[in-house]
Amino acid sequence: MSRTEFMQGNVACAEGALAAGCRFFGGYPITPSTEIAETMARRLPKVGGVFISMEDELGSIAAVIGAAWTGARAMTATSGPGFSLMMENIGYAAMTETPCVIVNIQRGGPSTGQPTRASQGDMLQCRFGSHGDYSTIALSPSSVQEMFDLTAKAFNLADRFRVPTFLMADEIIGHMRERMTIPDKVEIASRPPLPEARLPFEAGEDGVPGFAPFGSGRAIHVTGLTHDERGYPDTTDPEAHERLVRRLVAKVESARREIADYEVVNPDARVVFVTYGAPSRTVQQVIHDHPDKGIGHLRLRVVWPFPEFALAEFPDARVFLMPELNMGQISREVERHVGQPVVPIPKLGGDLHTPADLLRALEAYL
Amino acid sequence: MSRAEWLREDRLPHIYCSGCGNGTVINCTLAAIDEVGWRRDETVFLSGIGCSSRAPGYINTDSLHTTHGRALAFATGVKLARPDLKVVVFTGDGDLAAIGGNHFIHACRRNVDMTVVCMNNQIYGMTGGQGSPTTPPGAISTTTPYGASEPAFDLADLAIAAGANYVARWTSYHVTELTKAITTGLQTPGLAFIEVRTQCPTNYGRSNRLREVSDMIEYLRSHAMLVQKYERLIAEGKPIPEGTFTIGELVRRNRPAMGVQP
């Protein structure tokens, strides 16, 4: 039987991870993500899992990657500055195709910025933050329910595509409390195994190699260096590098439709809000208060890989309005894909846009 | 088990310079594993970045060649998630003590059940011979052209202070003793740290009047002093020759360890 609870977003994130079979958490305390670590510290030992508070964020993501190679579902959670510290090893996870989940409860930046205030300032960092070319998957919850659901989903996507997968929430969603439902069980997709006849980094048609965890007798060499299908370093052959990097990018980018997860409201609207995360809630309020105005809303639950085809769900759109808790990080991505004007509505400082803020922005276009 | 079975022969030839001491350390480590009888499918090698850290790539087991300095943090994840796996880390002085210093002390403090073999050649070898935290004062490197001016880290002392259960130091000259020390390390619950002073004729020797491999090995042999003799000389108030470093088993104890299989 599913049960209804009144829960904090960060706790719901931890519960979603546990429901999805996460059995390893390595982390370092940082506001406003700490309740995730605290919940994991309390809960993991009771389900046979391991919690470890590492010496820093570099160590946290390193331990998570190590645990992931033993076959465990593994996760870390952090906020802005800690996320920045993880970047080198996030690139390592991308290069070595290590399935793992990284939660970022975003706070105001740059630098230590506003530890207790919300932001969506790391949306480009989670896509481009490490050096070199690669692609990742990022989900963005806008309710406590989605903190649970999307965290669980992140593990499935990480395993399916063998890619570090991000839950990019913000302080508002992390710290809000609301009613949510814990389902009886959540869907758990298994990691596709490495077939006997395949080399460790030899991909099938979908670009994703099968996974053989440590201890399974396959003697797999894993390196962050450019490697061939055997996993052996091959750092000077231009073709080997190009073949590998193109595959790492393509395995995620070519699956954009499979990964996409979004919600469409009023597809015949002429003015369309595009949101992800906490600002979605203000747009929902505005539409609720003004059902007569025919306001459209595209709410992204998956931000990366960017589902540009979702914008075509609004054939009559004259303008896309983008309230974000940053200076317009994803609005530039939307702009790349549409002919209509894209108007960023940035909000900095940690507060959510008010319905009045959005109505003011709307007035010029209605 | 034959030791050849543990080598990835399809990876040969290796990338080490002629005269490098790392092959000796790999050989001694595999001999030790042979001695304790670990199976290939239960043993995982990890490393960070640098010459030392290429070693797992030549060993035919599951292995993780990670980022610079972070091998012990990766290894902590492997060991805690699968305590039944045997974990060995190859590292170097730059990897372990500079960028990885924080992970080093905390892995020792936690006393995670793993064996860490540090190939200390007192230089950043792979990147061209820059001064490392163990480059001795006065030594010439590309970043200490007037002689290193900082004191060198004593890695074994650091491991002891931080809490490792087993700490030993030998050199690439002392192959029998080194093999024995690694064997003991593999069998000791908790973190076993074995420092190996090893030669780098290419990037250390040629700048410090030790151009021949034999010169470097002779230097290591003649400057190493068994810890028992060192302590006796100190107790007797006798002088210790300049440049002397201790070798032998420096600590063996039974602090609570993490990741030990129940």
TrEMBL record, chain A:
Keywords: Oxidoreductase
Enzyme Commission number(s) of this protein: 1.2.7.3
Domain Pyruvate:ferredoxin oxidoreductase core: from-to ranges: 269-357
EC category name: oxidoreductase
Gene Ontology biological process: organic acid metabolic process; response to oxidative stress; sulfur compound biosynthetic process
One example GO MF annotation: 2-oxoglutarate synthase activity
Pfam annotation, one family: PFOR_II
Reactions it catalyzes: 2 oxidized [2Fe-2S]-[ferredoxin] + 2-oxoglutarate + CoA = succinyl-CoA + 2 reduced [2Fe-2S]-[ferredoxin] + CO2 + H(+)
Domain Pyruvate flavodoxin/ferredoxin oxidoreductase pyrimidine binding: 15-246
Superkingdom as given in the UniProt entry: Archaea
Classification via PANTHER family: 2-OXOGLUTARATE SYNTHASE SUBUNIT KORA, PYRUVATE-FLAVODOXIN OXIDOREDUCTASE-RELATED
Subunit details: Heterotetramer of the KorA, KorB, KorC and KorD subunits.
Entry-linked NCBIfam families: PRK08659.1
Name of this protein: 2-oxoglutarate synthase subunit KorA
TrEMBL record, chain B:
Gene Ontology terms describing biological process: cellular respiration; organic acid metabolic process; sulfur compound biosynthetic process
UniProt entry tagged with the keyword Isomerase: no
Keywords for this protein: Oxidoreductase
Keyword Oxidoreductase: yes
Stretches assigned to the Thiamine pyrophosphate enzyme TPP-binding domain: 49-196
InterPro entries given in the database record: 2-oxoacid:Fd_oxidoreductase, THDP-binding, TPP_enzyme_TPP-bd
UniProt-recorded Gene Ontology molecular function terms: oxidoreductase activity, acting on the aldehyde or oxo group of donors, iron-sulfur protein as acceptor; thiamine pyrophosphate binding
Protein name: Thiamine pyrophosphate-dependent enzyme
